[in-house]
Design goal:
Layout: E1 3-11, E2 23-32, E3 36-43, E4 46-53, E5 59-67, H1 69-78, E6 81-94, E7 97-104, E8 112-117, E9 131-134, H2 143-146, H3 159-162, H4 168-185, E10 190-191, E11 197-202, E12 205-214, E13 217-228, H5 234-246, E14 251-254, E15 260-267, H6 273-298, E16 301-302
Antiparallel strand pairs: 1-5, 1-8, 1-9, 2-3, 2-6, 3-4, 4-5, 6-7, 7-8, 10-11, 11-12, 12-13, 13-15, 13-16, 14-15
């Protein structure tokens, strides 16, 4: 089995431009999932079909085959999903390594990435002076994701430069959740740039998706503020506990300020897009169902009346 071991970086400056002559690439994806991608590429006058497995650290399985350029053209026009990736690739030999600098065009205009393939994940790499931040584990920069969420459409390009992450695992989990959130909900009206989290409305309910470090892993908490300012009575407490016993997802809680929340938690390393979507929608729908019931009996305000 062929294995691709690769590191990816942002590029700064223009010193690299004089080191190679670029070749125009066009590529698209027949399928893209966390477990596998199937890519069609035309590089110069040659066609390629490439199948890649899931990433494990810096490496993943890769199988690549030459195909007639006519077949590649037809696949790109009829089988590939989303806009095509258009870029020019510059191959730059430095020492024993070949650096590949990709200058993107079209929907990804302005993005320049450098990749280097290694013999092992532990191989030491001397970085050229024009290499910037490493983004090997940042899923936004995967070509397959750039077809879904092009660079020119990124609403929050600065988020990881000022975001405060406590662990690398938390950061990686956050980046994956960001992609899933954009894919499932198109856009979300809130993203706190100094704290890993997202938010969106459904009806009168507001949900936040937060990513926290947890031992060697991370946890994804889906949390909705249901009611603020309700009268906390024994009857209300009994009502919430009874509903908790009947719920399949999460449960109600009351914080130090007597705000009523509904939350559900997922382990980051085992979460998949379907589980995250179920968590978000279940918490949103449940909060939306119960906020009016609580307010009618015990007063207070809904999230819709509070969150700006």
């Amino acid at each position: 089995m062929a294995v691709e071991i690769e590191r990816k970086f942002l590029v700064r400056g223009d010193q690299w431009r004089s080191l190679s002559v670029g070749v125009v690439y066009r590529q698209g994806y027949i399928t893209t999932t966390p477990e596998k991608t199937v890519r069609v590429r035309i590089a110069g006058n040659q066609g390629y079909l490439t199948i890649k497995g899931a990433s494990e650290g810096y490496q993943r399985a890769e199988f690549e085959y030459l195909i007639p350029i006519e077949d590649a053209e037809q696949m790109l026009s009829s089988l590939c999903v989303g806009p095509l990736i258009e870029k020019k690739r510059y191959k730059i030999p430095i020492g024993d390594l070949i650096w590949e600098v990709d200058e993107f065009f079209g929907d990804n205009q302005g993005l320049i990435l450098a990749e280097v393939e290694l013999n092992s994940p532990e191989q030491a790499v001397e970085l050229p002076e024009w290499i910037g931040e490493e983004v090997s584990h940042d899923y936004r920069y995967y070509n397959a994701n750039l077809t879904k969420f092009p660079y020119t459409q990124w609403a929050y390009q600065v988020r990881t430069t000022i975001m405060e992450f406590q662990t690398q695992v938390q950061r990686e989990c956050y980046e994956q959740v960001a992609i899933w959130m954009e894919e499932m909900f198109t856009q979300y009206p809130w993203e706190k740039l100094d704290d890993p989290g997202f938010g969106l409305f459904l009806g009168s309910a507001w949900v936040e998706v937060r990513i926290y470090p947890w031992h060697e892993d991370a946890v994804i908490e889906t949390r909705s503020l249901v009611v603020q300012g309700a009268e906390i009575t024994p009857e209300l407490m009994q009502f919430l506990l009874l509903k908790n016993s009947q719920m399949r997802f999460g449960g109600f809680a009351i914080d130090d300020h007597d705000h009523i929340y509904l939350s559900h938690t997922i382990v980051g390393s085992t979460c998949d897009p379907g589980e995250l979507e179920s968590s978000v929608l279940s918490v949103l729908e449940t909060a939306d169902d119960f906020d009016d019931q609580i307010i009618q009996k015990w007063g207070g305000k809904r999230a819709l009346d509070i969150v700006p």
